[in-house]
Write a structure and sequence with these properties.
233 residues; mainly alpha; Endonuclease Iii, domain 2; Endonuclease III, domain 1; 12 helices; DNA-binding
Length: 233
């Protein structure tokens, strides 16, 4: 036997997905039924006190952990829980309070610009439409989706790295980019699960279906998973 062949034998075969198409509605319903049973009322992990502070927290959370954002915003929101109070703090103080968060300089600048626009164009209220939200400095589609879902109860699917990973691994909504996954989730998820779907997917990806070492041994949908990343003891 050649050295190349011996090397190939020592490498364990990985289970591959042979069908990249989305799962059947029945399978998806079963997945989300289990998620709902495990977490009947899932919630996001960012701390906030009103729609405005939620908007700011989500803006700050880009490329940062929720825990890190919460640590920074505890004092920030004690001092400023309205656009007017945030403007009164000024960009320098906002920047100082959030300097432990990645990209803090740009984010502080966007927070101040966002407050100015909220006051000037929206009567200091957080707008309730995607178009209006995305017109605010620093607010993209994912941030708008989170605010619409949590603050205003709309069925939206904010696709972060966790949702993207889980949606592909479980074949709920396979896609090569976040928009493909988002639109796939809109079509695939039964309406009864829509309100909380992105929370279940985020939490599953954050604590169980992790990027490098998924905890398949404790996964409540492991029997429905055929991902190449599945780790079977």
């Amino acid at each position: 036997m050649s050295e190349a062949n011996r090397g190939q034998q020592r490498t364990p075969a990985r289970k591959r997905i042979t069908n990249p198409k989305p799962r059947s509605t029945a399978e998806i319903r079963e997945i989300f039924t289990r998620f709902r049973t495990a977490r009947p009322e899932p919630k996001g992990e960012l701390d906030y006190v009103n729609a405005f502070t939620l908007l700011v927290a989500v803006l700050l959370s880009a490329q940062a952990t929720d825990a890190g954002v919460n640590k920074a915003t505890k004092r920030l929101f004690e001092l400023a829980d309205t656009p007017e109070k945030m403007l009164a703090l000024g960009e320098d103080q906002v920047r100082e309070l959030v300097k432990t968060i990645g990209l803090y300089r740009t984010k502080a600048k966007n927070v101040i610009a966002l407050c100015e626009k909220l006051i000037a164009e929206f009567g200091s209220a957080v707008p309730t439409t995607r178009e209006a939200l995305e017109s605010l400095p620093g607010v993209g589609r994912k941030t708008a989706n989170v605010v619409l879902n949590i603050a205003f109860g709309e069925i939206t699917h904010a696709v972060d790295t966790h949702v993207f990973r889980v949606a592909n691994r479980l074949r709920i909504a396979p896609g090569k980019n976040v928009l493909q996954v988002e639109f796939g989730l809109e079509k695939a998820i039964p309406a009864e699960f829509g309100r909380h779907a992105h929370h279940w997917l985020i939490l599953h990806g954050r604590y169980t279906c992790k990027a490098l070492r998924p905890a398949c041994e404790s996964c409540i949908v492991a029997d429905l998973c055929d991902s190449a990343d599945k780790r079977i003891a």
